[in-house]
Design brief:
Elements lengths: L1 E5 L3 H12 L3 E5 L3 H8 L10 H11 L2 E4 L3 H6 L2 E4 L5 E2 L2 E2 L2 H14 L7 E4 L8 H13 L8 E4 L9 H6 L6 E3 L2 H8 L11 E2 L1 H30 L6 H9 L7 E2 L2 E2 L19 H14 L5 H25 L6 E5 L14 H11 L3 E5 L8 H4 L4 E2 L3 H5 L4 E4 L11 H7 L4 E4 L14 E4 L5
Parallel strand pairs: 1-2, 1-4, 2-3, 4-7, 7-8, 9-10, 13-14, 13-16, 14-15, 16-17, 17-18
Antiparallel strand pairs: 5-6, 8-9, 11-12
């Protein structure tokens, strides 16, 4: 099939390159000419494991193209996906890019005789696809949704850092459709996948994405509230407590004598909070959606409140053990919101670093992927290191901001030798299973003194 995708961010490009790998002919559309040129050259414009390879392969085979033009690719397409950003604006979802994309697509459909399915891939609040998107498409095209063109909502479940794997091995493909014809045509693009493919209403498709992200954010905030309680209780360790919780057969069933540890258990662990491009804005959008409908979303409000105060709480914990950050030299290892990505959006590690600076710390930062990108976040407020040992050289405190696996492979004796002090504040508890140099003092989160 011929597919046009408007938007080449994490969702749009991973989806486009993935569909091209399945044999479809895909054109990724973006207003950023530099980004479009990179894709045309077979280069991914951002870091995502495995993405470089499938972009290069698609470009070489001619199944993946890119363009700044909307009209041409949409006119030629059987299916058009909208994968533009839906950022947070003062606690509410900003649908301006969605409406603009729908209007441009609609204009391209005006003189097109062939039936085309337009699907929203972006995360949007319930009522957007059959509201803002439908109206913009109909207004610009002069056609009617249903008889003249199809309309679908196809939420994405791609995790940054493993998005390519998530695309190639989906656990479900949700298709929200205006009618059976649209669902059938749209479903053909995923024909090669053998997984549950529920066909539901447009609004239920929109809701399921928010419900999924809200649940995961809730698990993180729950774990961090348990961590805060343990931090206030001498002798308590939330990691030990949660290890026992994980043994509940409803969370980790025993099958054929072997215990299965589902991935969702990774969300029931302490941290310095959730971040990234999805959870913060999606929880905020759902809270605003609830307020607009007169629903008191007490749980979601609490999830957000716990997350908002978590960074300051873990820094207070650190200062209680090592003294004030003021005047101390601090080496921060890891800046991205999670390992496996170069995304700094709403990263707890960035917030952690900013608050250490505010508390008077002198900070040097290093991230395996995002050190250069971090210059946009910090400017000249920090020193940028060329490597981990450079970051901790002369430091009084080493702070683990992101749980990159590289830290487990560090020569911790060399770290001790490079540091002026001996404190390692593990804000992600990522070194829990590691034996550090005996001269280092590891401070973990979630444990009482």
């Amino acid at each position: 099939m011929k597919i046009a995708i408007v938007g080449t961010g994490y969702v749009g490009l991973v989806t486009g390159a993935g569909l091209a790998a399945l044999g479809h002919h895909v054109t990724c559309i973006d207003k950023d000419a530099t980004r479009v040129a990179k894709i045309a050259a077979g280069l991914a414009p951002f870091f995502e494991p495995g993405l470089d390879e499938i972009v290069a392969d698609g470009a070489a085979k001619g199944t993946l193209a890119s363009s700044t033009d909307v009209a041409g690719p949409v006119t030629a397409a059987d299916v058009v996906l909208i994968a533009v950003g839906t950022p947070d604006h003062e606690g509410r979802i900003d649908l301006s890019q969605i409406e603009s994309a729908a209007s441009e697509i609609g204009a391209a459909l005006r003189d097109k005789a062939a039936y085309t399915v337009v699907a929203v891939k972006s995360t949007v609040i319930p009522g957007t696809t059959d509201g803002v998107v439908l109206h913009a498409l109909e207004r610009a095209s002069g056609k009617k949704a249903g008889p003249d063109f199809g309309l679908c909502m196809n939420p994405e479940f791609l995790r940054e850092g493993s998005a390519v794997e998530d695309f190639t091995k989906p656990d479900r493909i949700v298709i929200g459709a205006i009618d059976p014809r649209a669902a059938e045509v749209f479903g053909r693009i995923y024909a090669k996948f053998d997984c549950p493919k529920p066909v539901i209403s447009l609004r239920n498709a929109e809701f399921c994405k928010y419900a999924s992200n809200a649940l995961l954010a809730t698990l993180i905030s729950f774990s961090n509230e348990m961590a805060a309680l343990c931090e206030a209780t001498p002798g308590a360790d939330v990691e030990v407590a949660l290890d026992c919780v994980h043994l509940d057969r409803r969370l980790s069933p025993v099958i054929d004598g072997q215990r299965v540890k589902p991935g969702i258990l990774s969300y029931i662990r302490p941290s310095s909070g959730y971040g990234g491009s999805c959870f913060p804005k999606d929880v905020a959008a759902l809270r605003a959606f609830a307020r607009d409908r007169g629903v008191d979303a007490e749980l979601l409000n609490a999830v957000s409140a716990v997350n908002d105060r978590r960074t300051a709480a873990v820094l207070d914990l650190a200062e209680a053990r090592i003294g004030a950050f003021k005047g101390k030299r601090v080496g921060v290892l890891g800046l991205t919101f999670k390992s496996g990505t170069d995304d700094l959006r709403h990263s707890p590690a960035v917030t952690l670093t900013e608050q250490i600076i505010d508390r008077g710390g002198h900070v040097t930062v290093y991230d395996p992927i995002a050190t250069e990108i971090a210059r946009n976040a910090f400017g000249d407020k920090v020193r940028y290191a060329a490597g981990a040992l450079d970051a901790v050289n002369g430091a009084d405190v080493t702070v683990i901001g992101t749980a990159w696996p590289e830290w487990s492979a560090l020569n911790w004796a060399a770290v001790k030798s490079a540091m002026r002090g001996n404190f390692v504040f593990d804000a992600r508890n990522s070194l829990r299973a590691l034996s550090l140099d005996p001269g280092l003092v590891r401070i973990q989160i979630g444990a009482g003194a």
